[in-house]
């Protein structure tokens, strides 16, 4: 315990899923938390996003560890709103040591071009907005953690038109955003290194969160079925990984995030940390 004792950490997309688990784990390890999430749906995203209630529940989970938490309903696509909310949170908590740019969506299925824009804007522009809004508060020893996707990287390697990774306009926007996050984080790490600030990207495989569990995602893995369910998808989910598992759990990603947020990784920067059960090796 206490691996990030006394640090203040910003987590976007923190109301549920991976983001909530990162926030709770970091609080358990001694950090005070700033939690941002959109708390409303996006038109072209086929599954529901977080709610105000989700954000409140996440805050209560953080508070169980005895740590402080400041939250706000913020759309990471809105740079001005993000800057305003972050300024207020830093004023309350006193500083900012770690940024976990986690917020993301994956709109699948037969969608109009707006789905491409929504996915790219949330998944990449939202990361840039988050990090750049935070830079003014970061000092030597700080850490930036972005969240990419092994599926996005594999889709890039496979080339256009590949069956690898999410398809459709939204899937294309998702894949491109995750590829850009990877390149952006590597470039950012080079710029921040002389300031003794670190930047690293975590690339998960399938994670057991609401993003994975809806019919459009199941259909990506079972295109042979008109209305596949979880039991159908579980037969093919393991094809994604080298290890014989359908997906990893949110806490598996939180372990990596906590390491990169802590001083245990004080000389680790510019790293692409894949938590993918061997997916990148398999493909």
TrEMBL record:
A molecular-function term among this protein's GO annotations: oxidoreductase activity, acting on NAD(P)H, oxygen as acceptor
InterPro entries: NAD(P)-bd_dom_sf, SDR_fam, SDR_subfam_1
Key word Signal present: no
Gene3D superfamilies: NAD(P)-binding Rossmann-like Domain (3.40.50.720)
Keywords per UniProt: NAD, Oxidoreductase
SUPFAM superfamilies, alphabetized: NAD(P)-binding Rossmann-fold domains
Top-level taxon of the source organism: Bacteria
NCBIfam families cross-referenced by the UniProt entry: SDR_subfam_1 (TIGR03971)
Family: Belongs to the short-chain dehydrogenases/reductases (SDR) family.
Protein name as it appears in the record: Carveol dehydrogenase
Organism: Mycolicibacterium vaccae ATCC 25954
């Amino acid at each position: 315990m206490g691996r990030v004792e006394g640090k203040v950490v910003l987590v976007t997309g923190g109301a549920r899923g991976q983001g909530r688990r990162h926030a709770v784990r970091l609080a358990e390890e001694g950090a005070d938390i700033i939690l941002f999430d959109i708390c409303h749906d996006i038109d072209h995203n086929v599954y529901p996003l977080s709610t105000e209630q989700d954000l409140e529940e996440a805050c209560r989970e953080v508070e169980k560890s005895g740590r402080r938490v400041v939250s706000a309903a913020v759309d990471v696509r809105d740079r001005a709103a993000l800057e305003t909310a972050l300024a207020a949170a830093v004023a309350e908590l006193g500083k900012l040591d770690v940024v976990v740019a986690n917020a993301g969506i994956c709109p699948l299925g037969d969608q109009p071009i707006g789905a491409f824009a929504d996915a790219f804007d949330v998944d990449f522009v939202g990361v840039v907005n988050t990090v750049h809004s935070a830079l003014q508060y970061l000092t030597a020893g700080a850490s930036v953690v972005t969240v990419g996707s092994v599926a996005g990287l594999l889709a890039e390697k496979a080339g256009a038109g590949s069956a690898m990774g999410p398809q459709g306009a939204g899937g294309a926007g998702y894949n491109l955003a995750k590829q850009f996050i990877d390149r952006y984080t590597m470039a950012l790490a080079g710029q921040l290194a002389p300031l003794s600030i670190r930047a690293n990207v975590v690339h998960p495989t399938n994670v057991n969160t609401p993003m994975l569990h809806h019919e459009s995602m199941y259909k990506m893995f079972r295109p042979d079925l008109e209305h596949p369910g979880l039991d159908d998808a579980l037969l093919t989910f393991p094809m994604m990984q080298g290890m014989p598992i359908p997906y990893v759990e949110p806490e598996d990603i939180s372990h990596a995030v906590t390491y990169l947020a802590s001083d245990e990784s004080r000389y680790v920067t510019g790293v692409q940390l894949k938590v993918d059960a061997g997916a990148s090796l398999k493909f």
